[in-house]
Specification:
With about 575 residues, the protein is α/β, with parallel strands linked by helices. The chain is built from 17 helices and 29 strands. Strands 1, 2, 3, 4, 5, 14, 15, 16 and 17 form a nine-stranded mixed beta sheet that branches. Strands 18, 19, 20, 21, 22, 23, 24, 25 and 29 form a nine-stranded mixed beta sheet that branches. Helix 10 packs across helix 11. It starts with 9 loop residues before the first helix and ends with a strand. Belongs to the metallo-dependent hydrolases superfamily. Adenine deaminase family. This is adenine deaminase. One of its GO terms (molecular function) is adenine deaminase activity.
Length: about 575
């Protein structure tokens, strides 16, 4: 798709028609297939012809020629369209390739990805080359284009330049703009942001919102500005209000907001019994959450909650394709569509036993089939960190009387520091730790105190954050420096140290933000990290999201950003960063 103007070239379409004429054989024939017909909303039985990556025919006929054709008798199986995950943050320790491979095993064959990491850390030429490489995957990857960084960058106007934003929006692989975390700027009169939204709509693409707790008036205004969908419903009333204003509602079930059972129950209480304007998302969850599955998990929850079977499958396929205007390629088993098909043991069991993606087996009879080559990440500028600067003891000076207190995994509020900071080690009879954010290039730092992260974390360092700057937390300055040095040594990652020793590490060899390991391996490493942090007093569920959102200004109240301690509600820098 990304190497040519059209999805299929004229020659390919002629070959596909030749299959119908009996002059060529299909590559795969699915006989006696009981499948979901998404337009008729019925379970039908038919023969399905596939030629390379396209469904050529669905009906009663059999091809005249089956030479060199794989024939599969589907008796006893139920076939549904490949699932679509419309809101993926493909850099939550994993990378786009490792996530897509894992997703395919659960039946998700199309994903729509956030481009934030590429926007912040790769130039446009390398980023677009990488998109072309991703197109070689059997899993279809679409993208969104960000309008803002969801934090306070030192030079946001040069990073999110008009030219670069427009280039992304015009890219064939980009199907939407957003997510719109900077909507307060829009309300305040930011006409460049409105111009980008207008351009998105002119291109026939969608705009994704980010409106937690938004009032009806705000939702109405955002619809007037051009927003099409929002994934921040936390109650049944939130769903109702979004439907009332004409939004597509993305029902979320994620590692920090596992809301789906509650949403479905409250929707039922409100009498909401139509699901055509609803889709599912796991909203970029952290690795361990995906042990339960991806779209298949959400379909299962919906079925158990009493959602009609076909509606449950449509929210993970047909509804998504219609929303993004890609139903001519995806979201249904029908003539002319990309051959993304899940083979189920029964309609009540959404996790497939076999999966076709672009007409290739990525899972067959329960066994994974790797259909794409490993990416050479260094070709695209995604390499281990190479820091040419050191952390000095003088950097670990803490005197600020103002700190941040964690309300939950991701919300931080201000508090007044009352403990003695003139020490190299804080006592473990309270939940206050040294907290430091360091520029990834070593130019600046900000030192404060975090309350509520843990009681006995001695040294902790992370190159994983929303901006790629470094986070140091701990009770003991020596252990904090040890964790930092180890993070530097392994080319980026998350490191936990204690009593002069490294007790756990996760290597993130792609810019210090993503791992090149399999998702299954990351799940084990993340689970161990969570265990160790919980043993040391971390009271919440998702420390990875805590790291990600310490600097994210789309959430209240106080954030630590590249500009300093930032008051989100008043949009002011309270304490600036210090140059090193």
């Amino acid at each position: 798709m990304l190497n040519q103007k059209y999805r299929w070239k004229n020659k390919q379409i002629r070959e596909q028609v030749a299959v119908m004429n009996g002059k060529k054989s299909p590559t795969i024939l699915l006989k006696n297939a009981r499948f979901l017909h998404s337009v008729l909303k019925k379970w039908l039985i038919a023969n399905i012809w596939i030629y390379n990556d396209r469904i050529i025919y669905v009906g009663e006929e059999l091809p005249e020629s089956t030479k060199n054709c794989e024939v599969v008798d589907c008796t006893g199986l139920t076939l549904v369209p490949g699932f679509i995950e419309p809101h993926v943050h493909p850099f939550q320790l994993y990378n786009p390739q490792s996530f897509s491979r894992y997703a395919a095993q659960t039946g998700t064959t199309t994903i729509i990805n956030d481009n934030l990491v590429m926007f912040l850390h790769l130039n446009k030429k390398k980023a677009f080359s990488l998109l072309r490489k991703f197109n070689e995957s059997p899993v279809t990857m679409y993208w969104w284009s960000r309008y803002d960084s969801q934090t306070e960058l030192e030079s946001e106007e040069t990073v999110f330049s008009n030219g670069d934003v427009k280039s992304w929006l015009e890219h064939d692989a980009v199907v939407q703009g957003g997510e719109l975390t900077a909507w307060p700027r829009l309300l305040a009169g930011d006409d460049l942001l409105l111009h980008w939204i207008q351009e998105t709509k002119r291109l026939g693409k969608k705009v994704e919102g980010h409106f937690p707790g938004a009032s009806e008036k705000t939702l109405a205004k955002m619809m007037l500005f051009g927003v099409d969908c929002d994934h921040e419903s936390m109650t049944g009333n939130d769903v109702y209000n979004r439907l009332m204003h004409g939004y597509t509602v993305s029902l979320r079930h994620s590692s920090i907001r596992p809301d789906l059972p509650n949403l479905l129950n409250e929707m039922k209480d409100l009498g909401l019994d139509q699901y055509e304007s609803m889709v599912f998302t796991t909203d970029g969850s952290t690795p361990a959450f995906y042990k339960q599955g991806i779209a298949d998990m959400m379909i299962r929850i919906a079925i158990e909650s009493g959602v009609p079977l076909i509606d449950a499958y449509h929210m993970a396929s047909y509804n998504v394709a219609r929303h993004y205007n890609i139903s001519h390629h995806h979201g249904m088993i029908a003539t002319g569509r990309v051959a993304n098909i899940n083979f189920l043991s029964s309609e009540n069991e959404p996790t497939p036993i076999s999966v076709l993606a672009k007409g290739q087996w990525v899972k067959k009879d329960g066994v994974e089939k790797i259909a794409d080559e490993d990416i050479n990440w260094s070709e695209y500028g995604l390499e281990p960190l190479k820091l040419e600067w050191d952390l000095n003891k003088s950097d670990l000076q803490f005197s600020m009387p103002f700190g941040i207190e964690m309300v939950n995994d991701v919300i931080t509020k201000p508090y007044s520091v009352s403990i003695d900071l003139a020490t190299d080690e804080l006592p473990q009879n309270h939940d206050e730790c040294f907290f430091m954010v360091l520029d990834r290039h070593g130019k600046w730092r900000i030192n404060t105190i975090v309350k509520g992260f843990a009681k006995s974390v001695s040294g902790f360092a992370s190159s994983f954050s929303s901006t790629g700057d470094f986070i140091l937390i701990g009770k003991n300055k020596k252990d904090m420096m040890l964790a930092f040095e180890r993070m530097k040594e392994i080319g980026g990652g998350i490191v936990l140290s204690e009593k002069g020793e490294i007790i756990h590490e996760m290597q993130l060899s792609l810019l210090g933000l993503m791992s090149n390991k399999k998702l299954e391996d990351l799940i084990q490493e993340e689970e161990r990290l969570k265990e160790l942090l919980a043993e040391r007093g971390y009271p919440f569920a998702d420390p990875i999201y805590s790291l990600l959102f310490f600097s994210s200004t789309h959430l209240p109240y106080i954030r630590v950003t590249q500009k300093g301690m930032y008051d989100v509600m008043n949009k002011t820098v309270l304490f600036p960063t210090l140059m090193r």
